[in-house]
Amino acid sequence: MTTVSFSASPVNTSSIPGRVRQGLRVLHQVNPVLSWVGWMNVALLLLAVVLLPFDSRTVTGLPVWVKPIKFCLSVIVYVWTLGWLLADLPAPAQRAVRRISWAVALSMVAEIGCIYLQAARGTSSHFNAATAFDGMLFSVMGIMITVNTLATVAAVWLVWRYRPYGAAGYVWGVRLGLLLFLIGSVLGGMMIHLNQHTVGAPDGGPGLPGLGWSTRAGDLRLAHFLGLHALQVVPLLGWWLARRLPRRAVLLTWLGAACYAGLVAFLFVQALHGQPFIALR
């Protein structure tokens, strides 16, 4: 694994597809483990998209292959973003980065495997203890979530101990984004505690098209979703501010991260009170 700064890497092409291809090539060079996990999920995503129109089964009110599609997309964005951000750490941190990458890879492969298997069986992967086999798979997913959370704790510690390469606004975006991502991961534990994601109604009721977030009761998935995607939003905010407003980038990055955290907290409390983000009758 080679240390390469993504925040300052030169780009040899002006087209967006060309930049994406170059970024993915460099990512594969610096973190092949997370790169391959991402590509594996690309293949699984395409397979689920192909199967979707030919399978009329539903799970919790949605077509059976919608959940694998959503989780494959989530894993792709997660592992490629994490590999991208950790590549900006200095050489002394890269041994720990390799260990974190393997832990994340193991947890993501196992989790998406369980989700795919349960979709193929036409049943739910989360909060499912209908049979001993279903309960075992959900337990495996719980263990993998714990592994990934511990790996995230290690990543947060690394980016605060070692300064990532780049301008100060970007550095603080990486640190705060990873921290908020960790908080978003922990919020998911409330769903495990309740053994469902809907508060005030059973899972599987009316929800937003494609997303499934409840429109009749509280849904913890929205706060969890936004918390997880702080990993992309906050570093990107810090990077943009460092380029546009370098003198105030750190302050504005902290302010942006605080507002983002406040929104996640608001949505989490709203869901706990059984109130939908968007109420449709």
How would you describe this structure to a colleague?
- It contains 9 helices and 4 strands; from the N terminus they run H-H-E-E-H-H-H-H-E-E-H-H-H.
- With 281 residues, it is mainly alpha-helical.
- Helix 5 (132-161) runs antiparallel to helix 6, helix 6 runs antiparallel to helix 7 and helix 6 (168-194) runs antiparallel to helix 8.
- The longest helix is centred in the middle third of the chain and has 30 residues, at 132-161.
- The chain is globular, with a radius of gyration of 19 Å.
- The model has no long low-confidence stretch (mean pLDDT 88).
Keywords for this structure?
single chain; 281 residues; mainly alpha; two-stranded antiparallel ribbon; 9 helices; globular
Summarize this structure briefly.
With 281 residues, the protein is an all-alpha fold. It has helices spanning 16-30, 32-51, 66-86, 94-121, 132-161, 168-194, 221-228, 230-244, 249-272; strands spanning 58-59, 62-63, 198-199, 218-219.
- Averaged pLDDT: 88
The Cα radius of gyration reads: 19 Å
Please provide the ordered H/E string of secondary-structure elements: HHEEHHHHEEHHH
Going by helix content, strand content and strand pairing, the class is mainly alpha
Shape assignment: globular
SSE diagram, text form:
Layout: H1 16-30, H2 32-51, E1 58-59, E2 62-63, H3 66-86, H4 94-121, H5 132-161, H6 168-194, E3 198-199, E4 218-219, H7 221-228, H8 230-244, H9 249-272
Helix pairs in contact: 1-2, 2-3, 2-4, 3-4, 4-5, 5-6, 6-7, 6-8, 6-9, 7-9, 8-9
